[in-house]
Each structure stands twice: as structure tokens, then as C-alpha cells.
Design brief:
442 residues; 16 strands; 13 helices
């Protein structure tokens, strides 16, 4: 009886975490395959929750989200995306933490962050206020929609600048002669599938440009006009999408045709060919602010004093960190290091405090949260630490009471062994050492 009870409890726990919403709920389950049709192409106001099954705050929100969806049924659409299962969809809208709620209003391509309360009443109130504003804008003739599609104007979140118009004249120089990775669509103006792909391609181009910092580019070529390049690569049907990497033979794109699928493939291509992030020494507040402010997570190593390890020992620790930066480069985290005692206020805010070096902390500067490495400062220990954090299972605390500690400006390490301080030589010639040392004490 006991094993059966445990089995039932185990199944119940799995269900409570993995299945937040069902077909009987008024919350619409959204995926990359239905998101564009349900949300982007809809005239309705949408509230969309991006959640992760393991997230405690998401679990607490679920009953209120369901209740709000029922109250708003037929008035405002309420949806949910499992961002663990559909990472590309969350990445497309810059989702970093859970739960994240986005409001898709007049301009579906530029959703707004929901800033209200998390109770069902607060959600309903916020939705109705947004709906009133939307209706007033429509009455006054305002519209936030992006209008008709086309590569030469705003289209589904994309623009002429984001989708590069390729021709027989510029193809070799731009695509084959550049260092970027290219996804090129060969299309025909009369092709129905090409017209369906157009807004997805344009929206993906904008997102990919931002997420890869221009290292992966999306282009489009009218194959009926520019037949030299199309013929060179054996284009026979439309649309045909090919991937071009510098110095390599092109390959056929085999992924899905939604913007989320295209973005996911493009980001993978970027990560596969991107160099590992640079490991920087914290020399001043600007380095910390830029590195950690631009990243979802910032990994900082606190290394022993140079007199304790010498150059060889320090380089060994730095090599471990660089190997981990390479391993986790797809995360696009920031990587920093500092010498023990060089940034005392930072150490104090993290509870590291003057002993136990080397140490490591992972910081989310936007949320002012951090986690400490509890295992060994090794590839295995750090990998386990970062793996737990990446799936949301790490233990976190608030950084220094929620305020950024003062960062000292220091000189960079010169790459050499440390030098002990030079001691002063004392002249003992004038010191009387004869004294009364021969006398016996009583």
C-alpha cells in the first residue's frame, strides 16, 4: 500500500508541475506553431504568460491566471507559453525570468511588459484599462499595427534594413565575402508559400539582428529576376532557404517556417561559430557595469592573491574559467575575475569575506540576485553549479541588500609572479650589544 501511495503522490507532483493548463481551462496554450495565427494575426487584445514548470512563482500564479482568463473570456484573450519547452518563443520576446507577462495590444510586434499585480482582480483590472485605451485609439483613428507586408517596408516586425535585398550584383560581395553567417531566402513574387513566409522572415530578421549583434543576417533574393545566383545554387522550387558560412559549401535550411523556428536556428548558428566571451579582470566599475549589465548572468571568479599561487597557479584558475566560458558561450553570459582583497565591498556584499579562495559568484545585476559556488573550483564543480542555475534550481540571495557595492579602480595584473615587499635594512653598528649580558641575575 505504501509504494502505491508514494507512486500516486509522485504522479500528482509531476502533474502539478508539468501541466499548468489543460483544454478545459480558458487559458490558451501557445506554441511556436500556433502563436503567429492566434496572437500576431489576431485583432484581439492578448495577455500572454511565459512560464517554466519548475518556477515556484509561476505555480502560485496559475490559479489566478485561470480565474482571470475565465472572467475575461470573450473580451480579452489570455494565453500561456511553456518557455522551457518552447525556448525560442521566449527568446524572441526577450524573456529572461519567470513568470513574464506580455501585453499584445494594437502593435502585436511590439508587446509591452505587464507591470500590474498578480492577483486575478489586478490582472482583470489591468486588462480592462488596456482595452479601453485600445478602443479610444481606434475611435480617434490611431493604429499601432504595422500595416501591410513587404520587404521594402515595415512587415511583421521586420524592415528593409533587417532583411537584406540581395541581387546578382551584390551577392558575392555581401554573402560570400563577409564574415557573417547568412540565411538567404530565394523567392518568386507569384509564390503563395513565399508570401506566407514573408512576414515571418521579416520579423525573424529583426530579432536575429538584435540577438546576434549583426553576426547572423537574413537576406532575400527574387530568383525570377536574379537567375545567375539562383541557378548557381540549383534553386528549383520556392521558397528555397540556404545557409551560407564563410569558406564552406552552402547547406539547405531544414527547419520550420515560423519566425520562432527561424530565430532558433539563426541563434544556434551564431552560437556555434561565436568565440567564447572574453574573461576580463575587474579594474573599475565600468567594466563590471558593462559586462554584467549587458548579460542575463555574470560569472565572477575571486582568485587567491598572486603571492599565494604565483603566475602559474593563477593561470591555471583562469584557464578553468575560460574553458567554462567556452562551454557555456551559447548562454552569452559575462565572465569576470578579480584578485582576493582587491574588491572588498563586492566580496562583502556576496558574503565571500576574506577567506576560502578561489571563490565564484553568479550575479544577475538587473534583479540584484546572486548565487555562490559551493563545490570545487574545477571544471566539474563549476559545470554542476552553472548547470543548476541554468535550469533554475540554484539557491539565490539578494546582492548587498539590493544596492550595488562600490567598485575600486585597480591596476591590471602584469602576468608575472608577485613580489614580496622589500624590507628596510637596519644599521646595527651603533647598537651596544655588550651591555650586562655576562651578569647573573639574582
Amino acid at each position: 500500500m505504501r509504494p502505491l501511495l508514494l507512486g500516486v503522490l509522485g504522479c500528482s507532483l509531476l502533474l502539478s508541475v508539468g501541466a499548468f493548463y489543460s483544454a478545459s481551462d480558458d487559458v490558451v496554450e501557445l506554441t511556436p506553431s500556433n502563436f503567429n495565427k492566434e496572437v500576431i494575426q489576431s485583432d484581439s487584445l492578448w495577455l500572454v504568460e511565459f512560464y517554466a514548470p519548475w518556477c515556484g512563482h509561476c505555480q502560485h500564479l496559475t490559479p489566478d491566471w485561470k480565474k482571470a482568463a475565465t472572467a475575461l473570456k470573450g473580451i480579452v484573450k489570455v494565453g500561456a507559453v511553456d518557455s522551457d519547452q518552447h525556448k525560442s518563443l521566449g527568446g524572441q520576446y526577450g524573456v529572461k525570468g519567470f513568470p513574464t507577462i506580455k501585453v499584445f495590444g494594437a502593435n502585436k510586434n511590439k508587446p509591452e511588459d505587464y507591470q500590474g499585480g498578480r492577483s486575478s482582480q489586478a490582472i482583470v483590472d489591468a486588462a480592462m484599462n488596456t482595452l479601453r485605451t485600445l478602443v479610444k485609439d481606434r475611435l480617434s483613428g490611431k493604429s499601432g499595427s504595422s500595416g501591410s507586408s513587404g520587404y521594402n517596408k515595415q512587415s511583421g516586425g521586420g524592415s528593409k534594413e533587417d532583411v537584406v535585398e540581395l541581387t546578382d550584383d551584390n551577392f558575392d560581395k555581401m554573402v560570400l565575402g563577409g564574415d557573417e553567417v547568412w540565411l538567404v531566402e530565394f523567392f518568386a513574387p507569384w509564390c503563395g508559400h513565399c508570401k506566407s513566409l514573408e512576414p515571418e522572415w521579416a520579423a525573424a530578421a529583426s530579432a536575429v539582428k538584435e540577438q546576434t549583434k549583426g553576426k547572423v543576417r537574413l537576406g532575400a533574393m527574387d530568383a525570377t529576376v536574379h537567375q545567375a545566383v539562383s541557378g548557381r545554387y540549383g534553386v528549383r522550387g520556392f521558397p528555397t532557404i540556404k545557409i551560407f558560412r564563410k569558406g564552406e559549401e552552402p547547406e539547405d535550411y531544414q527547419g520550420g517556417r515560423s519566425r520562432a523556428d527561424i530565430i532558433e536556428r539563426a541563434v544556434d548558428l551564431f552560437s556555434d561559430h561565436a568565440a567564447a566571451p572574453e574573461l576580463l579582470e575587474i579594474l573599475n566599475k565600468d567594466i563590471l557595469k558593462k559586462t554584467c549589465g549587458d548579460s542575463q548572468l555574470c560569472v565572477i571568479g575571486f582568485l587567491p592573491h598572486i603571492l599565494d599561487t604565483g603566475a602559474a597557479g593563477r593561470n591555471g584558475y583562469l584557464e578553468v574559467m575560460m574553458q567554462m566560458a567556452e562551454k557555456y558561450k551559447k548562454k552569452m553570459w559575462g565572465w569576470l575575475w578579480t584578485e582576493a582583497g582587491a574588491q572588498m565591498e563586492l566580496e562583502a556584499s556576496l558574503g565571500i569575506g576574506g577567506f576560502g579562495y578561489p571563490a565564484m559568484a553568479a550575479i544577475n545585476l538587473r534583479k540584484m540576485k546572486f548565487a555562490l559556488l559551493r563545490g570545487s573550483f574545477s571544471e566539474t564543480g563549476i559545470h554542476e553549479f552553472l548547470r543548476e542555475l541554468s535550469v533554475g534550481r540554484g539557491s539565490t540571495a539578494t546582492l548587498g541588500g539590493g544596492t550595488m557595492p562600490k567598485i575600486q579602480t585597480v591596476e591590471p595584473w602584469d602576468g608575472k609572479d608577485g613580489q614580496l615587499p622589500v624590507e628596510e635594512d637596519y644599521d646595527l653598528s651603533d647598537v651596544d650589544l655588550d651591555g650586562d649580558f655576562d651578569k647573573d641575575e639574582l
